[in-house]
Amino acid sequence: xxxxxxxxxxxxxxxxxxxxxxxxxxxxxxxxxxxxxxxxxxxxxxxxxxxxxxxxxxxxxxxxxxxxxxxxxxxxxxxxxxxxxxxxxxxxxxxxxxxxxxxxxxxxxxxxxxxxxxxxxxxxxxxxxxxxxxxxxxxxxxxxxxxxxxxxxxxxxxxxxxxxxxxxxxxxxxxxxxxxxxxxxxxxxxxxxxxxxxxxxxxxxxxxxxxxxxxxxxxxxxxxxxxxxxxxxxxxxxxxxxxxxxxxxxxxxxxxxxxxxxxxxxxxxxxxxxxxxxxxxxxxxxxxxxxxxxxxxxxxxxxxxxxxxxxxxxxxxxxxxxxxxxxxxxxxxxxxxxx
Length: 339
What we know:
Blueprint: H1 7-39, H2 51-64, H3 67-92, H4 105-131, E1 135-143, H5 148-182, H6 189-207, H7 216-236, H8 240-256, E2 268-275, H9 279-282, H10 292-313, H11 326-338
Antiparallel strand pairs: 1-2
């Protein structure tokens, strides 16, 4: 007896919490900063009764101290981990580490690999476009809203937050819970895990279908992108590779090389560029995920992830522990020892 809600209900609650949770975490982080500024007498408490004046005062202080934008994202990351811990304990009745946060030496090694892989692949995409004349560098240290150093730090923390949140949301929680729910005698653990892997990747692609400049090809590519991100989780049991890869893929894409990130243009980047290549290759206004270069990079990434797991672990097999509820194993062992 698991003593928790059935998988469909848990997934429905997690989906609802996830959709609203990301915005809530950012608002909570902002509230903490505003309260701290009030305690520091940077903003009067009296403005709590005047929303418009409060917004103007907050914006003025943030403009004066741009590093506060970075601090807001950093606080949101801390709030996210608290959110994950609470959801694991209350809804899932398990340790939050079971989602792929086993912070052992191997975890940090995989994270470094994922970070290097994401940045390296995006560098390769940019290098190919530059060599073929599909992209022209028009400037450097581009920033449209705030000092460059503050903007680049804010962007980095933002993508760290997105990387952790989306990988926990789409991979760590959903793959594990769907696989546990499908792990029935007539399906088996391997098929259950692969079905969960495919379903969450399709969901990941469809989740971005409403992005600006999205096309059928970009949606298919994002489904494959979801498969790429999920592969490291399936082979290692941890989110280190997916998180690292997700962070630097987005950060280097938008804030180093100035390319669109899934349809969104960056307002700060190390390089300012102008694209001129064929959209079928570059992805055009959607970014590399919408073109053939992105597809080739995704394919290469999956090969390298598999090779990394074979090299570091001596095998590249599925982590079937994702299909069993740890509490069930503990109960079984206690029952067996007492009989």
